[in-house]
Amino acid sequence: MSFIGSGAPVFVARMRAARALPEDDQQRLLRAFLDRYETAHALTEPYPDVVRTLTALRSDGHRLGICTNKPERPARHVLDHLGLSALFETVVGGDTLSVRKPDPAPLHAAAEALGAGPLLYVGDSETDAETAAAADVRFLLFTEGYRRSAVETIAHAARFDRFGDLPGLIAGALDGAALAAPRPPA
Questions:
Q1: In this predicted model, what pLDDT tens digit does every residue of 122-153 receive, in sequence order?
Q2: According to the model, what pLDDT value does residue 186 have?
Q3: Which of 7, 83, 144, 177 is the most exposed place for a label (fewest CB within 10 A)?
Q4: Residues 78/98, Cβ–Cβ less than 8 Å
Q5: Beta bridge partners of 141
Q6: Where in the chain is the domain with CATH 3.40.50.1000?
Q7: Average pLDDT rounded to a whole number, residues 8-22
Q8: Strand, helix or coil at 111?
Q9: CATH superfamily of this structure's domain 46-175
Q10: pTM for the predicted model, two decimal places
């Protein structure tokens, strides 16, 4: 069983269940986890080519935002640690709004902060795919992330396993040529 994905509350609930700890401990354990999580960003490393790819996309005039179930403050700490904060115009975390992904509201909030223009959502999980579908946004699936299902079962307009391929997919999507309509799960 994977414990990662779906945000901190779900992560803690999975860990608590695996250790057979009572549900009454959930909030205490979540607070303790988040306290430690605030400073654990130093252990985070980007996937290969992420920094170069994001820098190139930004240089090409793309507006970038983040929509994550990770709490906003730790997400911003990670971006600061990686030197990526300046590339993103908005960060919508799992605690930014009263709802979290797969509800479309966080993605809508990120899109609103970025302003008008074509919108693509890049993610690595079933939750990301569900969020994109609920928001009626084309979804690009990074296949090497935190998904738990086979790639073929996750709705996506295109998929990639190397971040260096992302600019080409985005260019094709914006030209309207490279991406078909989102594929439903098999």
A1: 999 999 999 999 999 999 999 998 888 999 99
A2: 46
A3: 177
A4: no
A5: 123, 159
A6: 46-175
A7: 90
A8: helix
A9: HAD superfamily/HAD-like (3.40.50.1000)
A10: 0.82
